[in-house]
């Protein structure tokens, strides 16, 4: 759970490490993409959940994690709740925005990555990313929530905790 006012991200301690990492990536997607003051965010929670979970899928894929067994049903459920749109259309229309944010995160991570973040089973030509080594150290993600420079919500000063 992300609390923008308190600048905290809470991740349950009773999940395995992979699920906790995926959840943290999901919440980072929200932090970077969804200003809680935005009318669109409040009106279209389904789109926000599709975007955040899709970012987590790509970050996981770049690190050898296949989260599709969780992500696909989650995204499908939320996409189906967007009024007036077919679930497939919701996913398609958010794709480029998701990809841009996921690549922004991946380019700043100082981790061993196994690829471009392309989810298992999805192959397409994508432009090359900038190398994380070309990023100044202060721009790398020291903690998963410190990846944005938003003036109104400064997650660089956020706290990440486990909760029971």
Detailed description of the structure:
The chain is mostly helical and 164 residues long. 45% of the residues lie in helices and 7% in strands. It has 5 helices and 3 strands, in the order E-E-H-H-H-H-H-E. It has helices at residues 17-33, 39-43, 45-62, 68-79, 87-108, and strands at 2-3, 8-12, 159-163. It has a 3-stranded mixed sheet with strand order 1-2-3, covered by helices on one side. Helix 3 (45-62) packs antiparallel against helix 4 (68-79) and helix 3 packs across helix 5 (87-108). The longest helix has 22 residues, at 87-108. Mean pLDDT is 76; it is low at 131-164.
- Percent range for β-strand residues: 5-15%
Annotation field: number of helices: 5
Using DSSP, what is the number of strands? 3
Structural class of the helix and strand makeup?
mainly alpha
Coarse morphology: globular
Fold blueprint:
Layout: E1 2-3, E2 8-12, H1 17-33, H2 39-43, H3 45-62, H4 68-79, H5 87-108, E3 159-163
Parallel strand pairs: 2-3
Antiparallel strand pairs: 1-2
List keywords for this structure.
3 strands; 164 residues; mainly alpha; three-stranded mixed β-sheet
Please sum up the structure shown:
The protein is mostly helical and 164 residues long.
């Amino acid at each position: 759970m992300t609390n923008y006012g308190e600048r905290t991200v809470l991740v349950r301690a009773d999940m395995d490490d992979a699920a906790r990492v995926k959840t943290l990536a999901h919440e980072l997607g929200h932090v970077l993409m969804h200003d809680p003051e935005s009318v669109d965010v409040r009106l279209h929670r389904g789109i926000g959940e599709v975007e955040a979970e899709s970012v987590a899928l790509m970050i996981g894929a770049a690190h050898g994690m296949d989260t599709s067994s969780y992500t696909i049903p989650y995204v499908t459920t939320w996409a189906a709740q967007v009024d007036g749109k077919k679930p497939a259309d919701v996913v398609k229309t958010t794709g480029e925005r998701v990809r841009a944010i996921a690549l922004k995160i991946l380019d700043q991570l100082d981790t061993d990555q196994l690829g471009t973040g392309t989810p298992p089973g999805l192959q397409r030509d994508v432009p090359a990313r900038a190398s994380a080594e070309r990023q100044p150290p202060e721009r790398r993600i020291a903690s998963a929530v410190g990846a944005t420079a938003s003036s109104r919500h400064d997650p660089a000063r956020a706290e990440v905790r486990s909760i029971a």
